[in-house]
Amino acid sequence: MLVFRQMFDAQSSTYTYLLADAASRECVLIDPVFEQGRRDAAFVAELGLTLIWTLETHVHADHITGAWLLKQRLGSKIALAEASGAAGADRLLRDGDRVSFGDRFLEVRATPGHTGGCLTYVLDDWSRAFTGDALLIRGCGRTDFQQGDAGTLFRSIRDRIFTLPDACRIYPGHDYRGATATSVGEEKRFNPRVGGAGNEKDFVGHMAHLGLPHPKQMDIAVPANLRCGRPDGASLPADPDWAPLNLTFAGIWEVRPHWLEEHAGEVQILDVREPDEFIGALGHIEGALSIPLGQLAARGAELSPGKPTVTVCRSGGRSAQATVILQRQGFDKIANLAGGMLLWNAEMRPKAGGIDYDAGL
Ligand SMILES: N[C@@H](CCC(=O)N[C@@H](CS)C(=O)NCC(=O)O)C(=O)O
Ligand SMILES: [Fe+2]
Hints:
Blueprint: E1 2-9, E2 14-21, E3 26-30, H1 37-46, E4 50-55, H2 67-74, E5 77-81, E6 91-93, E7 98-101, E8 104-110, E9 119-123, E10 128-132, E11 135-136, E12 139-140, H3 150-161, E13 169-172, E14 182-183, H4 184-190, H5 200-207, H6 218-225, E15 246-247, E16 253-255, H7 257-263, E17 268-271, H8 275-278, E18 289-290, H9 293-299, E19 309-312, H10 317-328, E20 334-337, H11 340-346
Parallel strand pairs: 3-4, 4-5, 5-6, 10-13, 16-20, 17-18, 17-19, 19-20
Antiparallel strand pairs: 1-2, 2-3, 7-8, 8-9, 9-10, 11-12, 13-14, 15-16
Helix pairs in contact: 1-2, 3-5
Bound molecules: glutathione and fe (ii) ion (FE2).
């Protein structure tokens, strides 16, 4: 069984793919994006997976890879093409290699042309192929920089991608118009550059006249990607260190109830439930300030700005939104109480008011 997810970085229109072997829980990420490192790490953790490889389809010109960052966070290894010329990889891939995760594997196909080191990763059963920027949906990667060569790209697509079964699903490195996937058969018929009856000469002529401006991030992205995304002296965005926080895939920093019970005196506790809930059956945490979620935008000034804040509600849903509202107001040390008062009560932690479930009522 395969676990498969497609994720998107809106800044660069990049797709990142997660493939996991359901039984062993081993997974790989294809083309992670640096700025999405926390998102990807949280996703891998929440699905109970172990990230063993990050795989690059090529040295990107438009965004920085998350490979190095994920290696620091999760201990994953970095692989990309030997022909990429990049330093800092754990494995340099060549045409015909296999990258295994659990009982599954990806077959490595060299598909140069967009760059000299472009790879396509084909799933073991040929049901899916991850083409990077060699083949895009109704398009293809540009060929005007990074050893780009239109004739080479034409042959890569025709000989190494279009030779897969028509039903093989194609997952590209980007899409700029909102499409997510295509298939070999579909691109053979409808791709205006490489499909239909066009030949190499037609393709080379088409590619010579794209007239695209260079990617905005190119001068930063290419040198960084040639180091597999390792920052060059620049400091990393630091994780908050005032508590052992967990970042959920939804992007919310969370704190566990036991930590809050032990450190209640060091933080301000903000309960965002309605007043009747605050004094209702679930009770509230001693010393908590009560500001209902609907009033938070107007009453943020009642909180001390420099003090770490933990938001609380019934289940953790409304208080997650409270962290977002407070961040917009400039608060930076904010976390949500995981599980809210429901989990707090289930763990029988001390509370003010409410029903004492432990007394058997
Ligand atoms: N506007 C984008 C540039 C997008 C771009 O050039 N993308 C490359 C892939 S790295 C490409 O091959 N695009 C093909 C196309 O747009 O047809 C940016 O500034 O990042
Ligand atoms: Fe690219």
